[in-house]
Amino acid sequence: MTHVAAPFGRRAAIVTGREQHGAYVLIRCRDRQGPLPHAGQFYMLTAAVRWGGGESERPFLPRAFSVLRADDSGLQFLIEDVGPGTKRLTELDAGEELLLVGPLGNGFAPPREGRKPLLVGGGVGIAPLAIWQDELGPHAQVLLGFRDRAHAEGARLLKRPTVATDDGTVGHRGLVTELLEGELDDRGEDVEVYACGPPAMLEAVRELCGKRGVAAQLALESGMACGFGACFGCVVPTVNGYIRLCLDGPVMDAAVLEAAAVAGPGH
């Protein structure tokens, strides 16, 4: 896996734009002090002001987000409002400050032995696949799964995806792993799968690839409070023992993961 080291400490980045993509909000920011991340790495994000809730305005913990895109113009993050912390982040607009730590963790590695990449994403987990497709090139095949039409708007952020929705309002009616199963049956072992999404989806990807002997790299989610391995909040089991996902992941080779590591709660 590939790794770009983060500068020490938290720094401020100016938000340069906010876009609505169906159920998701895309936040752009300019990080003048940090290096460009590699696909699959993540940042710990907080809003500079009003980062707390309740009568005492108790601060929220930072939130971990994979990078959607990164270039000389800045960083992009894809956020869904699923609670108080993410709601505050989706409210940020141009000119406000975003506090960040990163890039952190290990990202995706190139396909092995000449295999062709096959990208599989679910929900907001499409984020690291967008920057990875940018690096691989537009030829990289993409399969994406969403809950409904509003969430499927996120598919527009990647090039030429095949889409599945749970309710059938866009593309294939059913799960993205059904699309993956068909591709693996047709193409055999000449692919390497890259996946990010909800735990149940990742576990299904792990099982499908494992049974067919297909190489797979999974970008996992886990509760994180620091991103540096100090809090031990993101410990997951592997065949070689427990690891801290923020240090040894978030991208992991599917072959070393236990089922419990993939099926755990997201952040």
Structural account:
With 267 residues, this protein is an alpha/beta fold. The chain folds into two domains: 11-103, Elongation Factor Tu (Ef-tu), domain 3, CATH 2.40.30.10; 116-262, Nucleotide-binding domain of ferredoxin-NADP reductase (FNR) module (Rossmann fold), CATH 3.40.50.80. Helices cover 21% and strands 34% of the residues. It has seven helices and 18 strands. It has helices spanning 84-91, 127-136, 149-152, 176-187, 199-212, 245-248, 259-262, and strands at 11-21, 24-30, 42-47, 52-53, 58-59, 63-66, 69-71, 74-80, 97-104, 116-122, 141-146, 162-165, 172-173, 191-196, 215-219, 235-238, 241-244, 251-253. Strands 6-3-9-1-2-8-7 form a seven-stranded antiparallel sheet. Strands 13-12-11-10-14-15-18 form a seven-stranded mixed sheet, sandwiched between helices. A two-stranded antiparallel sheet has the order 4-5. Helix 4 (176-187) runs parallel beside helix 5 (199-212). The longest helix has 14 residues, at 199-212. The chain is globular, with a radius of gyration of 18 Å. The model has no long low-confidence stretch (mean pLDDT 90).
Question: Percent of residues in beta strands?
Answer: 25-35%
Major sheet: arrangement of strands: 6-3-9-1-2-8-7
Largest sheet: 7 strands, antiparallel
The Cα radius of gyration reads: 18 Å
CATH class of the largest domain: Alpha Beta
Average of per-residue pLDDT values: 90
The overall strand count is: 18
Number of H/I helices: 7
Overall structural domain count: 2
The CATH level-2 architecture of the largest domain is identified as 3-Layer(aba) Sandwich
Q: Classify the helix fraction into a percent range.
A: 10-25%
State the end-to-end CA separation. Answer: 22 Å
CATH topology term of the largest domain = Rossmann fold
Category from helices, strands and their pairing: alpha/beta
* Secondary-structure element pattern, one letter each: EEEEEEEEHEEHEHEEHEHEEEHEH
